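sorry for the late reply, my laptop died twice this morning and i had to redo everyting from scratch. anyway the thing you sent over, i finally got around to it. pasting the sequence first so we're on the same page, its 295 residues, then the predicted structure underneath. double check i copied it right bc i was rushing
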Amino acid sequence: MPEKHIDFKVDYSRLTVYSEYNTQEMLYPLVLSSPHSGKMFPEEFLAHTRLSEQELRSSEDCFVDELVMPASNAGIPLIAMNLPRTFVDVSRDKIELDDSMYFNHPSPQTGIGSRRCRVGLGVIHRAVAQTKNIYDGLISYDEVQERIKNVYDVYHKRLKQLVDKCYKKFGLCVLVDCHSMPAQICGIMNEKKPIDFSLGTLFDESCPREISSQVAQSLETYNYRVEFNRPYSGGFITFNYCQPRKNIYTLQIEMNRSLYMRENVYKKNPQFQKVSAQISDSLVSLGKFLLDFKK
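ok and here's the structure:
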């Protein structure tokens, strides 16, 4: 029996792709990006997925944009996705497409793609983190191209504009890509204290150690355990936005979800405000450090 074809169109004119905060006046050579905190699901997408909204949110970096909002309010621009990564993952290369997902892919299906495509986590996800399939058939390649044009490209155009604006003002920019990590991963090494924060620098290729160490030292004053490039060393944004020769650096920060939320029910825990203040203070301290770093 032929596999089911799922063909739908999304009204992109009704969607607000991202939100931005405090982007007019930059006080520090920093830009914050939260590409996976979106939870506004297009109704057409929800109508054609086999999963519940709750299941789809398991891939979300829940509340990350809110966690760093006090830092943004102190003079650091923030751009945050409104749409979920299960619809479009802007922290992937847009060529990371799994051609086996589409009933009308223009070229012969090869089954060859990136490792993330093979596990269902390309720019268009086939599955959520628990390996549950999002669709119960094949989707339209044409509709996916509309997603990339109307969501992916829109986010990256604005993010690049903010990085360029920061660099033009300060001659330096550090793009901090903000994410969260499941508590289960943070304790996977079977060590006495789970990892609280992971700072990804592509093993010091995307960001000088003196910059990432500044963040680590600030967080460690609150008795957090901070690791470099473990379990994450950086992703698409970390790699593609850094230009060290121009003094444009990237730093991926991953936060243990158990610090600030009840992970299984997508609710903040009583420590949320304290953790948010501490993370934000560390980011503002980095901003002040960078004002002297560039001199």
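Residues 5-85+150-293 form a domain with the Aminopeptidase fold (CATH 3.40.630.40).
thats about all i looked at so far, will dig more tmrw
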